[in-house]
Design brief:
With about 400 residues, the chain is an alpha/beta fold. It is about 40% helix and about 15% strand.
């Protein structure tokens, strides 16, 4: 009996009226599933591909507020949406309130977005050492000033927050961050149930999501961490009481995970779900790979195929294609190269179900968090670092 079968037997699909559809502002999110912003991944082509498999909310990769205000070329490009994207959801990163206010006012004033998410959880050193991402919750008054600036500028556009448990076990800030979001009028919050020090190692501690949900009661709480299969989403919601889930690495090379999630939750919160189909044969995977690569080339030009190379190993994980095929796919230089490589594969190969729970992409950690000098000296300090020190890190 495979692991997928065991989890299926133990969990079961969503029952009618078991879960209610969370609302983010005026947006109803059903299934209660959000695509996590992932640097270099959740660009417009990937969001469009995932949206084709199932409903939910699909958030852009991280955009810097300062880069947007200053017209930084890469930031401007990443902040655009495909015509069919609805709702348009963007994640902003900033370290001080002025540029955050200006960036949100620009996006809302030009009617470019329907939802704004604020990043207070990025653990990457180039972000945290500048006082951003997961470093900001260590200074709650400064964080509050940034959140307030965004909400003031957003007017009726919903603003949400995504953050981690804390920088490390000795500095767990998630409850305070949740209360700040609630007090200032955020539309929802999402918790990645790891510390920044953990990065992507170990297991997510879902009990922290439960604690946050019990502490913050007036707005939706979404849980993030270790959603590899649709059954994980149901287990998380049932065990923590959270209102929905955020899916990150679990959908890399598997955009049809959103189709499976839609199945187990059901078309509405009043009808209940059904078991998803079996994982696709390699033929369907190859069709999706070709579609994904084509979208990237249309969006980024010839360089799109280079960007696609990293996706090939994620798509083929669990299929016995052999190392030679994987190596060849890492060398492709055109869409024709991709098609030639895929034509050499056995279309009838099936997925090893045990591979569904093997992490894709980041596995690093633990690693001490890089912070600005003296950052821990005065948590009540509201003074941001000089804006010139902020990293222009849109898209990672």
């Amino acid at each position: 009996m495979g692991l997928r079968t065991v989890i299926n037997k133990n969990v079961g699909v969503a029952a009618p009226e078991e879960f209610s559809a969370p609302k983010i502002g005026d947006m109803t999110v059903w299934p209660p599933v959000i695509l996590a912003p992932m640097a270099g991944v959740t660009n417009a082509p990937f969001r469009s591909l995932c949206r084709g498999f199932g409903a939910g909310l699909y958030v852009s990769e991280m955009i810097t507020a300062r880069g947007l205000v200053e017209g930084h070329l890469k930031t401007q490009r990443l902040s655009h949406f495909s015509p069919e994207e609805n709702p348009r959801s963007i994640q902003l990163y900033g370290t001080e309130p002025v540029s955050m206010y200006e960036a949100v006012r620009m996006l809302v004033g030009e009617n470019r977005v329907d939802h704004i998410d604020l990043n207070f959880g990025c653990p990457m050193p180039k972000v945290t050492r500048k006082g951003g991402g997961a470093a900001l919750p260590l200074k709650p008054r400064l964080l509050a000033s940034i959140v307030k600036a965004a909400i003031d500028a957003a007017e009726s556009t919903p603003v949400t927050l995504k953050f981690r448990v804390g920088t490390d076990d000795d500095h767990q800030t998630f409850l305070d961050t949740g209360r700040i979001a609630e007090d200032l009028g955020a539309a929802s919050i999402a918790l990645h149930a790891r510390t920044a020090e953990q990065l992507y190692s170990g297991e997510a501690n879902w009990t922290k999501i439960e604690a946050l949900k019990q502490s913050v009661t007036s707005l939706p709480v979404f849980g993030n961490g270790d959603i590899w299969e649709p059954w994980d989403a149901l287990r998380m919601m049932r065990s923590t009481g959270c209102d929905g889930v955020v899916v990150g690495r679990g959908c890399l090379g598997r955009p049809w995970l959103f189709r499976d999630l839609a199945s187990v939750f059901g078309p509405t919160s009043a009808t209940g779900g059904q078991e998803p189909g079996e994982p696709p044969l390699l033929a369907e995977v190859c069709e999706t790979m070709t579609r994904h690569a084509s979208l990237l080339i249309d969006w980024a030009g010839p360089h799109g195929i280079q960007d696609f190379r990293k996706h090939t190993s994620w798509y083929l994980k669990g299929y016995a294609t052999g190392p030679a095929a994987r190596h060849a796919l890492h060398q492709i230089k055109s869409l024709d190269d991709l098609k030639i490589c895929l034509n050499d594969l056995d279309p009838n190969l099936s997925l090893d179900p045990e591979s569904l729970r093997i992490p894709r992409s980041h596995r690093s950690g633990p690693r001490k968090v890089s912070l600005p000098e003296g950052w821990l000296d005065d948590p009540e300090d509201i003074t941001p670092l000089p804006i010139e020190s902020e990293a222009l890190v849109s898209g990672g």
